[in-house]
Every structure is written in structure tokens, then in C-alpha cells.
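Reference record
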Amino acid sequence: MSGEPQPEPSYQPEAFRPLAAHIVEAARQPVLGGKSPRPGIDLSPHLDALAALIADVAEWYEVARDDWEARNVAPPNRDLQRNLDPDEPEPGYDYGDAEPTDWAAFFDAFYGRADGNPGRNRQTHQRTDTKPWLPEPPPVPPLYPVVVALERWWKAQVGDKHGQRFSPRFGRDFFDKDRPYDLRYSNPPARLLWLIAERLDPHYTPENLSDLHKQVLRHRANAARKS
């Protein structure tokens, strides 16, 4: 990021009204993947409420993302040269031969991650576009409060009226790494979640989100057991 001042993001509902209209249009499309297409959902009566919801979760996501990054500082790169500022001159000295240190073992001992789930996003091939990959994919945990807010909004505004609970399903049988993902194989809650997550960070992928709701439920259950 450059040293120039960055514009403050706008969290006013009006700024998210075009996205809300896009979600309304996407949600009404039939759901493919079954023996016959299933009907979508008409969210047009909730357009203003949806824009306000997106404005809220966008701000909450930024706070959660900042908190996550503060708690999960990236370790130095194993290729030490890549840790240097490319604008800095070469140091002109090298102590590599002065000490018989096994630097690979040193890195593993002090910066290596233990076995198990590292809690970070995975790089995947499932995209709805051809944007370039980031060296480090965006983290998933900052999306947890977003999912909780969407679930509560859906239950209050949509679920009781349309008889469909908030259970995002992305049609994972139709993931294909050789072509962009077709959002029409997702149900309306999944389309809502995906289009908002894509706005928050365009480097998320549908495959990253396909199990996100279940992750949130497990996280909530674990927190309840500890309390």
C-alpha cells in the first residue's frame, strides 16, 4: 500500500444500493442442478433493508479483518530475499559463511506452523471471474460476523414469509476448475452470501464459502461450551 492517504470507505446504504439491486435480481433466478429448475425468491420488497444490511456488515467486516490481521501477523518468508524491501539497496555483506547455521531448520523451529488446520483460507480454483490470484488468500474468520448478521436478517425478513431458512448451498457438484463457477447452481441464501463476500474482498471464492455457514455454527457451539 502506498504512503498516500487512502479515502475513507463509505458505509452509507446508498453506496450499496446497486449491489442490493444486483442481489435481488440474482435471487429471483431459478436454481439449477436438480431434475428441474427450482424457483428463486423475490427480495425486491426488501431492497432498502438489504442495502442497509450490506452497509452494516461491510463496516463489521473491516473491523473483524483488522482484528484478525493484528492477531495473525504473517511470518517472514522462507526465501529471505523476499522479505527485503525491493527499493532498499543490497546490504553489501553476508554472514552466511561465518556461522554454520542450518537456516531451514531455524525457520521451521521458530516460524513453522504446527500440524493441523492453520486457520487460513486455501487457494482454490473456483472463481466466477478471471481476476489474478493473491499470494496470500483473504482469511475466512472475519466473515463469521457477516454470516451471523445475514442469517438473522434472513430469518426476520425472508424466512418466515417464503418458507426457506438460511442454509447456503453452492452446488459443489458443479465446481469445475476449468471454467468459472455458475452462480445459478447456488440457492438464494448462497447467492446473497457470495455476492456480499465478493464485494468485501474480490479474492474470496465460492469454494471458500461453501462450508462457511457450518463453520460458523461449529464456532458458535464451541464458544457456548467454553462460556
Notes: Residues 13-71+125-226 form one domain. Residues 52 and 102 are 55 Å apart (CA to CA).
